[in-house]
Amino acid sequence: MIKADRHLFSSSDDSVVMKQILATHSPDGRDINTRPLLRLVEDVLQRATPTVIVTPQAQLELVDDKAHHVEVGGMLEALAYTIHRISCEITCKCSGGGDAHGTTLVLLNSLANYTWDAKVVIALAAFAVSYGEFWLTAQLHTINPLAKSVALLKQLPDILEHTDALKPRFDAINNLIKAMLDVTKCIIQFKELPSEYISPDTPAMAMALAHVPTAVYWTIRSVVACASQIVSLIGLGHDDCFFDSGEKKHIEAYQTLERLFETVHIDNLKILRALISSKDDRPLIDGSTKRRVSVDVLRRKIVMLLISDLDIIHEELFVLIQIYNDAHQGKIDRHYEVVWLPVTDRHVPWTAAKEETFNRLASNMPWYSLHHPSLLDPAAIKYIRDVWHFDKKPLLVVLDPQGKVVCPNALHMVWIWGSQAFPFTSNREEALWKEEVWRLLTQRYNICAALQFIGTLLCLIPQVKEGRHVCLYGGEKIEWIREFTTVMKRVSQEANIPIEMVYVGKSNPKERVKKAVNVITTEKLSGYWQDPVMVWFFWVRLESMWHSKMQSGRTIENDPIMREVMTMLSFDGSDDGWAIISHGSMDMVKSHGRKIIDCLLQFDSWKGSVQEQGFVPALTGALEPFDTHEHCTRLILPGDTGRITEQVVCAECNRPMEKFVLYRCCND
Do 202 and 78 share a domain, yes or no? Predict the structure, then answer.
């Protein structure tokens, strides 16, 4: 019923709580026959039900006073004050929203002098008083003037109007009350077992009795939970009215956003004000001056909305800042503006740690950002999630000077071309790819040129020139890295070709990649990128190429760049190592796993071809006998690819690939 009350203690916590419970127990020897009192309590709780509302035409049930009071009359005289005090204590503690565990211990301390069965029955009786009064007023408010006035003070008519909406809560309370009564009856039954037939010292009995304090604790804690629910109903009518009004405003704001994005405007201010809180005249922070400004500074400009949560990774932000600064360095007027819209979960409390994270991120950004995440309208958050499909991965939504969305996510474009992609429209993205395709079509070896383009675009092969070979390799298995680099060095020496090897790791450069870099450095196996950001950028640009091509409907059958990108990403998806060796602008060969090492180990059998054909063509021919039809190609892409409906085809055999959903937590 109350999630906070569903706390399961660990074994260590359990022993601490048990000590606290037992510390409250100090019986003074008084013995109370609790069964009659429990029967009265049960009668109250059963009759106090939200399903019974008395109408003026209904007949009130006649109650036999003797049945209720003969057995409990004398007992109630002694316990009335205690029950009243405990009832007040429960109401007071629950009204203040205190800790349920602490409240339960307070009640146990108040009942310290009673036996375990008496504690739980008195607590139930105290709850029955307030619970019974609550529903007695609710049931009689239509026929009794006094009940009507009290009901108005407690706003019970509003509660009854929402009976259908509150039914799950009432059902939960009733189910918990039933469980409390069942447990209490069980405790009393144990106490009433005749000692002449079963001794409390027998192992089975002793074990059962050892659970009684825990059962009493959780039953009284359940009383606190039920009471908290009833107390929270007071004034519900106002809260519901406020909720209904707020919900209506939220729906209207969302519909307004939908209409605005479907309408042609003379500028972008209406849309920006609808997205960002219209209640604040200066909702933005200028990243260059750190001063608060209004959205008017963005009027009739190309605006790129950087949408993310507070967990945006360091590498992503670092590269974005570099691209932004390079594009605007030394320029007075900026071609475009970036605005960071941090999306946070409003259902999760805003903490000092989150405030610190937000301030740290915002202070590092050279562009505009919201002064505070709360200024992002809830309707805007819903629109961002529903229409722009924001989940976890950052988005870069581009608005033209009139506020029209010209690219739903330009992040892939920015990773590939940087500021060259200006004005960051989908048409510009298509034009950039057409330029590359036209260039490739004018060259003789399309696939080689495609892979060379990828290398140049990714800044992978800065030393590519005549007479020099470059080898890029990846993976995380130390044994494979050692063997490959050793045999590659030996072959390059025997073939008399200078070659530079560069380790590019994996797309998720975690601890295993760091360990591999340490081994490569210590044993001087090859070159590597010292900055982890470069490793991350290498792979994220490849992934961006794949996303960009898929969104434009390209496939490996009709696009050589797409084929080579797929191959590279499938290399990364495997557990084995891989290598790409290039020479100049045309010759390039790629292979993975054990195949390339086995081929290099047999260098003596094909080294004669090196002199005639060149090293890369000779290696390409030598690898052919190692090609097999058996393979297991994996393409692992981060983020949401669910909106990509096209079939993904294997780059190795051209067959459709199966699609699986992978959840991964990888910190090694």
Answer: yes
Here the tokens at position 569 are: 């990403």
pLDDT value of position 665 = 55
DSSP string, 267-292: SSHHHHHHHB-TT-S--EE-TTT--E
**Domain span including residue 348:** 254-427
Q: What span, in angstroms and rounded, lies between the C-alpha atoms of 381 and 346?
A: 10
Residue 337, strand partner residues: 303
Cα separation, 139 vs 648, in Å, equals 65
pTM of the model: 0.56
In a domain, 436, yes or no: no
State the Cα–Cα distance between residues 298 and 399, nearest whole angstrom: 11
114 lies in the same domain as 232: yes
Phi, psi of 205 (to 5 degrees): -70, -40
pLDDT in tens, 273-329: 988 866 778 899 998 899 999 999 999 999 999 999 999 888 888 888 988 888 877
What is the amino acid identity at position 293? Answer: V
Count CB-CB contacts under 10 A for residue 186. Answer: 14
- Three-class secondary structure of residue 482 per DSSP: helix
**Does 111 share its domain with 193?**
yes
CA angle 99, 100, 106 (to 5 degrees): 90
Q: Which residues contact 10 (CB under 8 A, 6 or more apart)?
A: none
pLDDT in tens, 103-121: 888 899 989 899 999 999 9
Per the DSSP assignment, residues forming a β-bridge with 370 are: 284
* C-alpha triplet 552, 568, 542: angle, nearest 5°: 50
Q: Are 275 and 307 in contact (CB under 8 A)?
A: no
184 and 130 in a common domain: yes
Do 213 and 282 fall into the same domain?
no
What six digits make up the tokens of 378? 């809830």
Enter the DSSP assignment of 62: P
CB 576 within 8 A of CB 583: no
What residues are paired with 397 via a beta bridge? 305
Phi, psi of 303 (to 5 degrees): -120, 130
In terms of DSSP bridges, do strands 499-503 and 587-592 run parallel, antiparallel, or are they unpaired?
unpaired
**Nearest Cα residue to 581 out of 509, 491, 483, 514:** 491
The first and second tokens of residue 212, run together, are: 């009684």
Q: Per the domain annotation, does 644 fall within a domain?
A: no
Q: What is the mean pLDDT of the chain?
A: 78
DSSP 3-state of 390: coil
Using the structure block, give the residue that is written with the tokens 């390339």.
596
Instruction: Tell me whether residue 25 is exposed, middle or buried, using C-beta atoms within 10 angstroms of its C-beta: 0 to 12, 13 to 18, 19 or more.
Output: middle
CB of 412 within 8 A of CB of 313? no
Rounded (10°) angle between helices 73-95 and 116-140: 80
- Mind giving me the DSSP string for 486-510? HHHHHHHHHHT--EEEEE---SS--
